[in-house]
Amino acid sequence: METSSIIYTGGLRTKATHVRSGQEIITDAPLDNQGKGEAFSPTDLLATSLGNCMATIMGINAGKNNFSIDGMKLKVTKIMESNPRRVSEIIVEFDMPENIYSEEQKKMLKIAAVNCPVAKSLHPELKQTVIFNYSA
User: Fold this and answer.
1) Which domain holds residue 21?
2) Are residues 127 and 62 in the same domain?
3) DSSP 8-state assignment for residue 11
4) 61 and 124 in one domain?
5) Are 62 and 84 contained in the same domain?
6) Are residues 47 and 28 in the same domain?
7) What is the full per-residue pLDDT of the chain (136 aa) written as tens digits?
8) Would you give the end-to-end CA distance of the chain in angstroms?
């Protein structure tokens, strides 16, 4: 079964529909590439997918090991290169919720993040910078 269907609606905009759920995502070309920048660009989604994947795999690992990362926040920054035009770096910064994490749990979370399926699917030249901020 197909994963998604996409319609190019014109004006450098697409509408993607997740086939199973019917959820939709609109994309626009970014301002720096002839677009309106009124929605995620395809490269924004690439960067955001990395953060989402890392968080999901971390959540799976935390659940399996009986601790929580609920409330964790991520900041994702995409850095573009111009020649050729491509994403050169994605920075994913995790702000961990108030909790006392053991060193073992911290290590487990980092390993889960950097080994998520999206991280492992990206080209090795694309730099992935991962930052964890733990309070207390």
Assistant:
1) 4-33
2) yes
3) T
4) yes
5) yes
6) no
7) 899 999 999 999 999 999 999 999 999 999 988 989 999 999 999 999 999 999 999 999 999 999 999 999 999 999 999 999 999 999 999 999 988 899 999 999 999 999 999 999 999 999 999 999 998 6
8) 47
